[in-house]
Amino acid sequence: VIKIRDLIKTYGEGTAEVQVLKGVDIDVGRHEIVALCGPSGSGKSTLLNIIGCLDKPSSGTYLLEGEDVANYDRGAQANVRLRKLGFVFQSFHLLSDQTAIENVMLPLQYAGVPVKERQGRAAEALARVELQDRMDHRPNQLSGGQKQRVAIARSLVTEPSLLLADEPTGALDSRTGKSVLQLLEQLHEERGLTVVMVTHDVEVAAWAHRRIALLDGKISA
Amino acid sequence: VIKIRDLIKTYGEGTAEVQVLKGVDIDVGRHEIVALCGPSGSGKSTLLNIIGCLDKPSSGTYLLEGEDVANYDRGAQANVRLRKLGFVFQSFHLLSDQTAIENVMLPLQYAGVPVKERQGRAAEALARVELQDRMDHRPNQLSGGQKQRVAIARSLVTEPSLLLADEPTGALDSRTGKSVLQLLEQLHEERGLTVVMVTHDVEVAAWAHRRIALLDGKISA
Ligand SMILES: Nc1ncnc2c1ncn2[C@@H]1O[C@H](COP(=O)(O)OP(=O)(O)OP(=O)(O)O)[C@@H](O)[C@H]1O
Ligand SMILES: Nc1ncnc2c1ncn2[C@@H]1O[C@H](COP(=O)(O)OP(=O)(O)OP(=O)(O)O)[C@@H](O)[C@H]1O
Ligand SMILES: [Mg+2]
Ligand SMILES: [Mg+2]
Asked: Which residue of A44, A96, A132, A200 to mutate against B (max B Cβ within 10 Å)?
């Protein structure tokens, strides 16, 4: 599903240049659940954003289900994301002027799903993360963990085959975090969902099938 | 230091009314390190915001170092925060158009500290959270855990006697999180810092002197 070779990502220029990813190789197979771990600032979000076609590498190759996406333009990247991916951002990126259910309906709208079906699917996605009582709240009327769960619901509502999640349980208490993992487990069994998740949580990393450690921009395990 | 009785916080009206805090009593003594724990949505951030004079209760009393702050107006609240508190927000609230060091200098500017001293103290605060190499980066050039550490540095730069922190290690890996706790431990020993921190992390809660559990808007332990 994911094949990455010699990935390099550099920010800035001249004396301000920072090489964040220093030649990364990654393989993720269909239906795998992979945890990406590493210290703060090691490059995990940067790597996940490139995998999620939200950013481009400075150099290197990236094949997503055999498609050579590393050098796609913005329009093509958006197209890949809509067709194939769900993404949970480290800082959620919800629209502040829309309710929880409106935020979750948005990807379905981009996919051309009719409004009645959008509403039903979004409501169901929110119920699965225990937010049925918060559907009409806007982000500033939600707790940190509730916002995170809206972001999770939004990432799954289009039924993607690949979920990319940046610290998806970071704002959740232990019980709520476990129930999110159970949801992903269930989708994995029912639909063969492939998951790459960044996590600091040792228990979440242990739950995954495999762990990849990133240290100072390089894979160390 | 903190004396709270019968605290109630309600949002919304009529059928949309949500009673988030349902009569909370809390005492925090000088130099105590208290962890506030509870499920997602239980009211922890709401309670911490009231303690931090960022919000007002719907009813109940709150004495901060003997000062009756529950019904202060916005100007008086801002004054209390500047004089007494450091606050680490769950979503950091950094200024996106300012660098890390400028963000950390800001509270000192409000406190009337001269610019050379502001720069020195802000640089030192950032060094203590291991961000000496990221001082001139703006928030969108920082990782999640780096932003969190900037927020921590900013909360401590005015040398407050009371630190209120909403999930201050939530975005940090285990080692970086421990070094933040060591910093707080050190400030506690050197200056008698009092700390109330919301946390989902069992190890952070264990490190505190005492734990308060919030369940559905009420203290349960
Ligand atoms: N402005 C608001 N209007 C209506 N309800 C609100 C508002 N702000 C917060 N709430 C509700 O208050 C409850 C408590 O929110 P709070 O942010 O205090 O929870 P929390 O314990 O910090 O949760 P988390 O661990 O997820 O951060 C939540 O159920 C939330 O939906
Ligand atoms: N636009 C940018 N310009 C310069 N440096 C950047 C930029 N974006 C990120 N960085 C740097 O790249 C490094 C990696 O960032 P990244 O967000 O990938 O880390 P991370 O592993 O996700 O960390 P965390 O666990 O704290 O979220 C950091 O040191 C950060 O300062
Ligand atoms: Mg990150
Ligand atoms: Mg909270």
From this structure: A200
